[in-house]
Specification:
Blueprint lengths: L12 E5 L6 H14 L4 E5 L8 H10 L11 H11 L3 H28 L3 E5 L2 H12 L3 H14 L5 E6 L2 H7 L6 H18 L2 E4 L4 H13 L3
Parallel strand pairs: 1-3, 1-4, 2-3, 4-5
């Protein structure tokens, strides 16, 4: 790939989202390599949720809602069940949603906002959409509730310059990772990702395509915004 003769100084936030096992991390890291080679100072960031303020909720769940010695206490299924139990009360649910949003906004301040203020472009592996989609599935949100929550996130989090949704059949994604609870875990989330991508005009990519094909499509889109 030839180096671009001139690079605009505009700093961008590029996000890769989608169900587990679609290749987000590989594609994000490859894009960072290419952008840095082209003279665009770019940083890779993993933007899955890293609990900080949420830790008391997690402690309460593990202490009072998971039986002692439960071998599944650290699995996703057990975690999801615990969150549902903890947030049955509307007041507790609202508090949990608020603290999660605040916790995530705090996380992105250090990993995305400040680096961009210092002149870095960011390629984010996962983003707020992933966090919200997972939350919506776990808490059983209606479409209307999910849409309101997504809009609230958009107002408080850095707005991506470009968002890629990496899609792949659940069977393929399941084979790529050994820590996915079940195929239904992927199926219910995949449908929401597809709907969200259509609603917000995100760029859809076929996760079953070859790496060179995906890289070429990604770079074509990225060049349009830098």
């Amino acid at each position: 790939m030839k180096k671009m003769r001139s690079i605009k100084k505009k700093k961008v936030l590029i996000c890769f989202i989608g169900i587990d096992g679609t290749g987000k991390t590989t594609l994000a890291r490859k894009l960072v390599e290419v952008m840095n080679e082209q003279g665009i100072g770019t940083k890779y960031v993993w933007s899955g949720l890293q609990p900080g303020l949420l830790r008391p909720f997690i402690w309460i769940g593990r202490t009072f809602f998971i039986p002692p010695g439960d071998p599944l206490a650290r699995t996703y299924i057990s975690y999801s069940t615990t969150i549902r139990k903890v947030t049955r009360n509307p007041i507790v649910r609202t508090m949990y949603e608020f603290v999660l949003l605040l916790d995530y906004a705090r996380q992105l301040l250090w990993t995305i906002r400040i680096p961009m203020m210092r002149g870095k472009s960011i390629v984010s592996d996962r983003y707020g959409y992933d966090i919200l989609i997972d939350l919506c599935v776990v808490l059983g949100y209606s479409d209307r509730k999910m849409d309101r929550t997504l809009k609230a996130f958009e107002h408080l989090l850095p707005k991506p310059s470009l968002t890629f949704v990496i899609d792949a059949p659940e069977e393929i994604a399941l084979k790529r990772k050994d820590d996915i609870p079940s195929i239904s875990h992927l199926s219910e989330r995949r449908q929401i990702y597809l709907g969200t991508a259509k609603q917000y005009g995100f760029v859809m990519l076929d996760g079953a395509a070859t790496l060179p094909e995906l890289q070429a499509k990604i770079w074509t889109k990225v060049r349009e915004i830098i």
